[in-house]
Specification:
CATH superfamily of the largest domain: Vaccinia Virus protein VP39
Structural class: alpha/beta
CATH topology of the largest domain: Rossmann fold
CATH class of the largest domain: Alpha Beta
Distance between the termini: 52 Å
Helix content: 25-40%
Number of strands: 23
Number of domains: 2
Strand content: 15-25%
CATH architecture of the largest domain: 3-Layer(aba) Sandwich
């Protein structure tokens, strides 16, 4: 959401995700989870990251709309916390000016990471949404220990390197449940749905545990095509958690589809921490009969080549053969570049999935050995055209950012990319489109074709019969149905390698069973 500046934990000017929940949607949550009547009947309500206090105010507006007088509402049982001093004061002023309420004893101006725990019946909040990897370095250093403390580290080395995609919302939710909820208390949270629907770092959140404290997700409302927060691209929803209750699946999952809340069942399919699959009653949702695709380890699913922001250096739209050793390539920013033919490969685009595979319409430069390792500079110097071209783009290539890429750049290979290995040079690939699609269409590519970043994923194979067998098994309609159940179609997460790996067994693992 909002950009984050460098700060100390005591910095009260910090803004993280300063997009506030509209009152109407606060009232929506109050209605769906019966928060108002619980509050009237003695429950205390706490918002750990309240911004200007909209969610707490929604309890008042909800009550007034129901005909209650302000002086009959238990406003003394509304509690809130906000780090940013400006927003904190805005909340105090709003409650004072609109409702004549002095909330100075109920609202705190502190970082929730350092706030002394107090126990409440209900947590009602909208924590900031920001991936750990996108936080400033100074803040990462200060909050790493909290991710360890709250059992949110799937890959500790990745977190230590600053590359984790775990969302800070996960940390705030778990702090709220552990430190600010009474036993069996409820948390009603607006949150990024990636915590339920994505692979990778979010798997750690889906243990639904913080040390000895267990909790469950009980219900989810997926806003889907409802624009609640005014153009925010993150996929978001409203979730209901209960402390000290073990997860029991399936759970009700309501999805807003063209203004109608359609009810589905949601559950992890193959492992307790898998992303939720979203299944209608008509679809059934039992994927136990999917036959795993058997692969060699060398054929593990892969993502396409990632230039790390240097597509204009490596990708080309036109090619002409100069002689048996050289080609002339061009793109929108570079014209008539002479390069060694042996390092220029056809790049797969969406055109190649529409019937017969046509001649290439794009090409990619790969300054690599066939073993998947980048060429050494001494090797590059043996090809004057290649060394001259790379040198002319050295500043661009050295200026690229990224945790994994930085490790390669530090070894001196400033011309390297991500997503390149020996598998790129296998003679056959089963490739499918993994971005913005709603159908699964694994297609065999023979020869030197290369997959493109997150647009495609692929399985590299050494023989054509093996490729044909894998393609046939991947074409099982149940596999597409499983991918569709993840409700990620049309996004960059559709059919990525991590999704397919759940449907795979490796020959090496099978042999160890006998």
């Amino acid at each position: 959401m909002a950009d984050i500046k460098t700060f100390d934990l005591s910095d009260k000017d910090l803004q993280i995700g300063d997009v506030f929940t509209p009152l109407i949607w606060g009232e929506f949550a109050i209605d769906k989870f019966n928060i108002f009547s619980k509050w009237l009947n003695g429950a205390s309500v706490f918002d750990p990251t309240m911004g200007e206090g909209n969610l707490l105010e929604a309890l008042i507006t909800f009550g007034l709309a129901k005909g209650h007088r302000l002086d009959t509402l238990p406003t003394n049982r509304l509690y809130g916390n906000e780090l940013n001093t400006y927003y904190f004061n805005q909340a105090l002023n709003k409650f004072r000016e609109k409702y004549g309420l002095d909330m100075s004893q109920n609202f705190t101006n502190e970082d929730v990471l350092r706030l002394n725990p107090t126990k409440h019946d209900i947590v009602f909040g909208n924590p900031p949404w920001q991936n750990f990897v996108d936080l400033p370095e100074s803040y990462k250093e200060q909050i790493k220990s909290y991710f360890f403390k709250f059992d949110l580290i799937g890959n500790s080395q990745n977190l230590l390197l600053g590359g984790s995609r775990i969302d800070i919302a996960a940390l705030i939710i778990q702090i709220a449940i552990k430190d600010f909820l009474k036993p069996n208390g409820e948390a009603i949270i607006f949150m990024p749905l990636s915590l339920f629907l994505n692979d990778g770092a979010n798997r750690s959140f889906r243990t639904y545990s913080i040390g000895e404290v267990k909790y469950c997700v009980d219900t989810v409302f997926d806003f889907n095509d409802e624009d609640v927060f005014g153009g925010i691209a993150t996929r978001y929803g409203l979730s209901h958690f209960i402390r000290d209750k073990n997860p029991v699946f399936p759970i009700p999952y309501f999805r807003n589809e063209n203004g109608t809340w359609n009810k589905y069942d949601a559950k992890p399919m193959f492992h307790a921490t898998d992303p939720l699959s979203i299944i209608s009653n008509e679809e059934g949702g039992n994927f136990d009969n999917i036959k795993p695709v058997l692969l060699k380890k060398e054929s593990s699913p892969r993502q396409g080549i990632n230039t790390c922001g240097a597509n204009d250096v490596y990708f080309f739209d036109f090619i002409n053969e100069v002689n048996e050793d050289l080609v002339c390539v061009s793109n929108k920013t570079k014209e008539n570049i002479i390069l060694p033919k042996k390092f220029v490969f056809p790049l797969i685009t969406s055109k190649e999935f529409k019937g017969e595979i046509p001649p290439p319409s794009k090409w990619v430069l790969l300054p690599y050995n066939k073993n998947g390792k980048p060429l050494e500079w001494k090797q590059i110097q043996q090809f004057p055209e290649l060394s001259m071209y790379l040198e002319s783009n050295k500043d661009i290539l050295q200026g690229r950012k990224g945790v994994m890429l930085n490790a390669i750049l530090k070894r001196g290979h400033w011309w390297a990319m991500l997503g390149v290995g020996e598998y790129n040079f296998f003679p056959h690939k089963i490739v499918w489109e993994a971005y913005g699609k709603t159908s699964f269409n694994p297609t065999i590519f023979e020869g030197n074709w290369q997959a493109n970043q997150s647009l495609q994923a692929f399985i590299p194979v050494k023989t054509l019969p093996e490729a044909q067998r894998i393609q046939m098994e991947l074409s099982d309609k149940q596999i597409e149905n499983y991918l569709l159940s993840l409700k990620m179609e049309g996004t960059m997460n559709w059919a990525q390698p991590g999704k397919i790996k759940k449907l795979i067994k490796y020959e090496e693992e099978t042999l160890t069973l006998f």
